[in-house]
Amino acid sequence: MTAPRLEIDLGKLRHNARTLVERLQTRGIAVTGVTKAVCGSAEIANVMLAAGVNGLGDSRVENIAAMRRLRVPGPITLIRSPMISQADVVVRCAETSFNTELDVVAALSTAAAQAGRVHGIVLMVELGDLREGIMPADLEGVARQVHRMRNVQLRGIGTNLACQSGVTPTMENMAELSALTRSVEAALGAALQIVSGGNSANLEWALGRADPDRVNDLRLGESILLGCDPLNRSPIAGLYTDAITLAAEIIEFKVKPSQPWGKIAQTAFGSRPRAADRGSKSRAILAAGIQDADPEGLTGPPGIEILGASSDHLILDVGEASLRVGSEVSFRPNYSALVRAMTSPFVAKFVRHEDAGRQLVKAIELPIAS
User: Fold this and answer.
1) Is 176 in a helix, a strand, or coil?
2) For the domain bounded by 10-227, which CATH number is listed?
């Protein structure tokens, strides 16, 4: 197979998704499977749905449109506030969208009226992470105005944590979200269907001893795809952490000094390397670089160390590993490395699945590369 490439084991992803769905179901919390890190892959979206997620979520309307073209079933939510310029396609492709601005909701209302549809609105509230969100004191007033608009329906409220500022989901901020839910419902005289407590970073809270109260939905992407907790990137018990791997081919293998020589200036990306003198080492160069994945987000086999990267080269200290030019090295990507690899047109994508007891591998094309 060609390299560099992402290898995606759909069976392991199905296991991860089903395990999380079942664990959260006992707490009265549904799962929205998030496809943004995989560029709206229809194969992965369908695996999440087969595993029991309640619906799908993506931050790019282009990904949602591509999933619709490929007939991915089930409700899909745009989990980033829509651009006004895309209101018509948002209404056409997504049943629901997350919103924080009344002008955007008004544009969705107009687009929904023209399309003869009713579009669902989830209002995002700011609880400290300082990404998107309506300030809590303003939420009730915004909800009243949305409730009065035609062709849109206020379906819920939500929040986002542990993203921009790393604010951890806790009993306190989740209790505040539940209290805000009750306040909005009392003001409108209507129940809210969705209370979206956050993302994969909420799992420790959601599966702990705290009462979820009104929170009935979590948006899970990283935990399904990579099997880890975003709060500390530790593996989640019972999940696969190697469902997605990145393979790259060695294009040079030589013994070289561990320190550069000559007058030292900035590297191609503006840093000034400080290499310790460890004598001559076996070094491999892979045909992949910063344009393809975040090198700091790659974990290689034991004994192999990433020394650095340029746009198109990944330099390794391979230790005692028995490697040669033409052989491959596989890495486990973190979320940052996965997102960059998925969006790179130079990284091939292959899915592995079982059919009648056989392991089958096929290449997939993603919307970003088409």
Assistant:
1) helix
2) 3.20.20.10
